[in-house]
Every structure is written in C-alpha cells, then in structure tokens.
C-alpha cells in the first residue's frame, strides 16, 4: 500500500516536473522568437533609420518645445501621423508659456523625455541632465552617421555631443545645391506696387533711391506711414545693406581677429542712417515700442503703410492676408536683397535649435532611433515638405514640386509641415523656399549670392554662469536699450554722441576683456573648419 502511494506520489511529481518543463520551454521558445523578431526588426529599423519594432505598438514620449511663439502645439496632422507610422513614436507636446519656464524645469529636475530648444542648448549639454547622443548611437543605433563638422560644432568640453542643431549647412553643401536657397529667416522689405505706380514708378536700385521714394510717399500721402517695421526685425535689412556682416549682439571677424558688433567700422554709418529715417519722419518713434509682432502686419495689410520691413516672405504673406481678408485690392512687391555694393550677409549660425534626450527619458533607445529616422533623407523630406505624393513630388532637376504655397502659414501649420524639424539640415530646409514664381524665391536667391559662411564665429559661445556670459549678457542688454536713443536722436550730432556713449559704456562694462576671451576661443575653434 505504501508502495502504491509512493508510485502515485512519484507520478504526480513527474507530471508536475513535465508541466513546468513544457511551460518553461514554451516561455523560452516564445522569448527567443520574440527576441529574434525584435533583433531583426531593429536591424531593419536601423537600416531605414527608424525605431519601429514592427509590432504596431506606439510609444508616447513627452516633448517640451522651448519657444513660446511656436505655431504648432499638438502632435497631429498628416506629417505627424506619417512619422508615427514610420517610427512607432508619437509625441505628447507642451509648448513653453515664456522663456523662463525651461530654466525653472531644469532647476527643479522636472524634465520631459525630450526637449527642443534654441536658447538653452549650452545648459542642457550636460551629462547630469541629458544623454550624450554619441553614447546612445554607439549602443542602440551604430549606423546613425553624422558628419564630422556637425559633431565638431556640438562636442562639449567633456568630449560628448548632446544634440545636433537643425537648419545648419556648410558653404560647400549650399553651393552644391542650387535649389537650396535658405529659409524665411532673412530680412526683406516689401513696398506697395499701386503707390509706386502713382508716383511714376521711380527706380529703387539703391538705399538713396529708397529714401527718395519714402520722401515722395510722405509728401503725397501725409496720413500714411512711409515705413513700418516688425518689432523683431528693426534693423537687419539695413545692417545687410551697410555690409556690417553682423547683428547688434554678435561678433564680426576682420583680418583674423574678432570684435564685438558695435565696434564694426561701418556701424556708425548704419546708426546715422537709421536716425535720419526717424528725423525725416519716415519711421515712427512708437515702432520701437510695439506691443507685439502683429501690429506692423496690420499697418501694412490695412493700407496704412507704404513699406513693410520684415523677412524675405513679407510680400507673399502680406498679399495672401490682403486677399483672404478682403482689406484691399493693392499688392506688395519685394525690394532687391542688395541695395548697395557693400551688401553682405555673413552666416555664422550653427543651426537653429536642437533636441535633447533627457535623463528623465523613459525610452532612450526609441528616442535616438526616432531622431535617426528624422535625420534620414526620407525623414528630412517628410518633415520639411510634407507627405510625398500628397503634398509634393520630386522634380528630376533636384527639388520638390510643392502642391501648396509654403508662405501660406495656415496650410503649413495645420498640416504639420516643417515644424517637426527636431532634426533636419539647412540644405533640405533651404529647398522648401524654392518655389518658382514666388517673390520670396527671388529674394532668397539674391540673398544667397551675397552670403559668406563663417560658422567658426558661431562657436564663440560663453558657458552658462561664466564670467564671460555675464559680461556679454549685460552688454547685449545695454545695447538693446541704448540703440533706441541713437535711432530717436533729434540731430545727427546727438546720434553720434549717443553712439560713442554706448561704446564707452560697453568698454566700461568689460568689453575688451570679453573680446580678448573671444579671440582665444576663436583661435582654438577656427581650425575645425580647415
């Protein structure tokens, strides 16, 4: 009886062991098959530059966009949908309410999976806050290739790079593609065609010509503002005409040395010119205190201004608004991008904004593969032009034939075109502007002809919280305030005195020490581009 009981017990134990073995085998077999599929799909995804596992699973990552003005605030529309289809990633988007929000998030440690920023790149390029791209690429996406120039530009003192900015291109890259003509981010002035005709179509081939026409407008149309300027684009067009090659808070290079913008030899002549526009009544004093960047548009499209200073897209966008609103039957046309023999653009930009994979990121692997897809040729074209076939087709000459007007902001924004350029480049972005027949296209081609690329100047960047950063921030803020006193001076002598006072203030604040530091950095960095 004991034996029978023992046999029964043994049978039960053996049955249990067999069941456990079978379950274990099934589990291991399933795991191996799943791992094999995952490995194969990941390899295929890497080849295509995607992070889609092929399982149909969609991973949601949080993205903070550090730009309060950003026009696209939700991950929706055909471009976002197609990116999710290709990568298996969708984004939960938050757009900054102001420029202080991200610094507060950094201080508190309350960061999302991804951050897209242009003003806090140095701050986030820190191993305590962000994953180095080079480490993630080595671990998860070894065939994600980034050129040496972009890596050199973004490599920090610790030997890592934490992002790659979009919108960057070398002079060689731009020269190789004649259809890549740049972005809207170049200054331009548009003028009323009907009024020019009423004035007898006087030529505008120089700054002197333009000033004469402004005088004619003021005399014949005393209730009209001769020139209205966007509050963020007050002086860029005229700095370009004087050939300063620099904005008012930047660095310029001459004979192998760099100096701060306001000491550029042609800067005083520029300031005297701007002051003359004011003293002759061609621009408004209140233009320097506009509450927002829509007021100048309203002046132009409601027929209250003759000339409108903003970007190279100004005529196209103003004309679209006038037509859609029915506010008038007049149209604008662009002035030439070069109105003087000295006209010059020095592109010292390193790109616009970059995406960071924060240490709070729940899936660094999916994140770096997501960016790898956006960096692929397919991803860059999808982001910048829209869905192929639906929004554009490829012209055999080497550019997209767009089925929409890229100056139509409502269409572009509602379809999610361009604004998901979390990784892109200046060449692809520059092709978005090539639309035969648009005034912006012509203006950008003129701008490209006078552009010199010196990204090495852009590498003169002070570290956050450094003494150099403190000095430059104070000087930049001082210049921002003092320049208006020069523009609005009651005489040329007063304008010159105010300019000299501004330069002296900068020097008293440590400008020469800052310039000496800048030249030390420049000497080290410029060899990266040889």
Mean pLDDT: 89
Q: Which outline best applies?
A: globular
Largest sheet report: 4 strands, mixed
From the helix content, strand content and strand pairing, which structural class follows? Answer: alpha/beta
Q: What is the number of beta strands?
A: 14
Assess the beta-strand content as a share of residues.
5-15%
CA-based gyration radius: 29 Å
Trace the largest sheet across and list its strands: 2-1-3-11
Helical fraction equals 40-55%
Q: Give the number of helices.
A: 22
User: Termini, distance in Å?
Assistant: 94 Å
Extract low-pLDDT stretches.
1-53
Structure characterization notes:
- It is a single chain.
- The chain is an alpha/beta fold and 530 residues long.
- It has 22 helices and 14 strands.
- It has helices at residues 2-48, 78-87, 101-108, 121-124, 133-140, 148-154, 171-176, 193-198, 207-220, 236-241, 267-279, 295-301, 314-325, 364-375, 377-385, 409-414, 426-432, 439-449, 455-458, 467-487, 492-508, 511-525, and strands spanning 59-66, 89-95, 114-117, 187-192, 225-229, 251-254, 257-260, 305-311, 332-334, 345-347, 354-357, 392-395, 399-402, 451-453.
- The strands form five sheets. A four-stranded mixed sheet has the order 2-1-3-11. The chain has a four-stranded mixed sheet with strand order 5-8-4-9.
- The protein is globular and about 70 Å long.
Descriptors for this entry?
globular, alpha/beta, 14 strands, 530 residues, disordered N terminus, four-stranded mixed β-sheet
């Amino acid at each position: 009886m004991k034996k029978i009981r023992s046999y029964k017990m043994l049978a039960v134990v053996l049955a249990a062991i067999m069941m456990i073995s079978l379950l274990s085998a099934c589990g291991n077999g399933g795991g191996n098959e799943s791992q094999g599929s995952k490995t194969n799909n990941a390899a295929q995804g890497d080849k295509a530059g995607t992070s889609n596992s092929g399982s149909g699973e969609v991973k949601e990552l949080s993205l903070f966009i550090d730009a309060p003005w950003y026009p696209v605030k939700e991950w929706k529309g055909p471009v976002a949908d197609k990116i999710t289809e290709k990568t298996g990633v969708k984004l939960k988007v938050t757009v900054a309410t102001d420029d202080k929000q991200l610094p507060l998030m950094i201080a508190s440690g309350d960061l999302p999976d991804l951050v897209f920023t242009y003003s806090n790149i140095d701050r986030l390029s820190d191993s305590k806050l962000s994953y180095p791209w080079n480490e993630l690429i080595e671990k998860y996406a070894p065939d994600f290739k980034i050129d040496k120039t972009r890596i050199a530009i973004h490599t920090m003192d610790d030997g890592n790079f934490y992002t790659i900015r979009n919108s960057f291109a070398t002079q060689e890259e731009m020269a190789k593609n004649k259809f890549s003509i740049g972005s809207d981010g170049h200054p331009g002035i548009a003028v009323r065609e009907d009024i020019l005709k009423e004035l007898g179509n006087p030529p505008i081939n120089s700054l002197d010509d333009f000033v004469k026409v402004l005088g004619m407008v003021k005399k014949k149309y005393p209730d009209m503002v001769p020139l209205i300027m966007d509050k963020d684009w007050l002086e860029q067009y005229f700095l370009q005409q004087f050939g300063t090659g620099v904005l008012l808070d930047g660095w310029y290079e001459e004979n192998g040395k760099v100096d701060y913008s306001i000491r550029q030899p042609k800067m005083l002549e520029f300031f005297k010119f701007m002051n003359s526009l004011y003293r002759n009544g061609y621009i408004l004093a209140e233009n320097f205190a506009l509450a927002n960047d829509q007021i100048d548009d309203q002046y132009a499209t409601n027929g209250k201004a003759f000339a409108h200073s903003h970007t190279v897209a100004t005529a196209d966008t103003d004309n679209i608004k006038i037509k859609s609103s029915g506010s008038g039957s007049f149209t604008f046309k662009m002035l030439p991008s070069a109105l003087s023999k000295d006209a010059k653009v020095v592109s010292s930009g390193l790109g616009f904004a970059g995406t960071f994979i924060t240490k709070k990121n729940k899936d660094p692997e999916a994140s770096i593969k997501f960016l790898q897809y956006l960096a692929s040729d397919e991803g860059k074209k999808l982001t910048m032009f829209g869905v192929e076939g639906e929004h554009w087709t490829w012209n055999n000459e080497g550019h997209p034939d767009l089925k929409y007007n890229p100056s139509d902001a409502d269409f572009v924004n509602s379809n999610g075109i361009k604004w998901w350029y979390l990784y892109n480049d200046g060449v692809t972005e520059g092709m978005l502007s090539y639309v035969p027949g648009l005034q912006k296209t012509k203006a950008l081609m003129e701008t490209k002809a006078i552009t010199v690329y010196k990204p090495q100047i852009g590498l003169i960047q002070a570290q956050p919280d450094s003494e150099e950063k403190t000095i430059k921030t104070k000087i930049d803020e001082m210049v921002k305030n003092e320049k208006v006193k020069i523009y609005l001076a009651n005489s040329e002598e007063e304008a010159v005195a105010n300019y000299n006072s501004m330069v002296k203030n900068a020097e008293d604040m440590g400008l020469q020490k800052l310039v000496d530091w800048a030249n030390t950095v420049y000497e080290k960095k410029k060899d990266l581009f040889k």
